[in-house]
Write a structure and sequence with these properties.
Layout (H helix, E strand, L loop, with lengths): L1 H30 L23 E3 L8 E3 L20 H7 L7
Antiparallel strand pairs: 1-2
Length: about 100
């Protein structure tokens, strides 16, 4: 009877171990799918996190950095061409009311 209990635990352990390996593989593959056009990026990193043909840059009208082709304005992605990103502080101020306060 003890033998069957250990055999059952051994099979359960093997299944859990294989499941953990599969999850680790899935997470590793998902982790490699970064840096697509329009993805946010950090230009201060020691490595380029954007995919081939893209660089981490901040479009002139945006407050954040994105993986974009050079020049970013040639992209159809709204985060790269400045149409879909949060506005840069200077751009937001330029869009405001320029009248002097009373």
């Amino acid at each position: 009877m003890n033998r069957s209990v250990f055999a059952t635990r051994g099979r359960a352990f093997r299944r859990a171990f294989v499941g953990a390996l599969v999850m680790a593989a899935v997470m590793a593959v998902a982790g490699c799918d970064q840096g697509k056009e329009g993805d946010r990026c950090n230009p201060d990193l020691s490595h380029d996190e954007c995919n081939s043909g893209l660089t981490c840059q901040q479009p002139s009208t945006c407050a954040e950095n994105y993986c974009c082709p050079t020049p970013a304005s040639s992209s159809s992605n709204p985060y790269c061409n400045g149409e879909g990103c949060p506005p840069a502080l200077d751009a937001a101020l330029d869009a405001g009311d320029d009248a002097a306060p009373e």
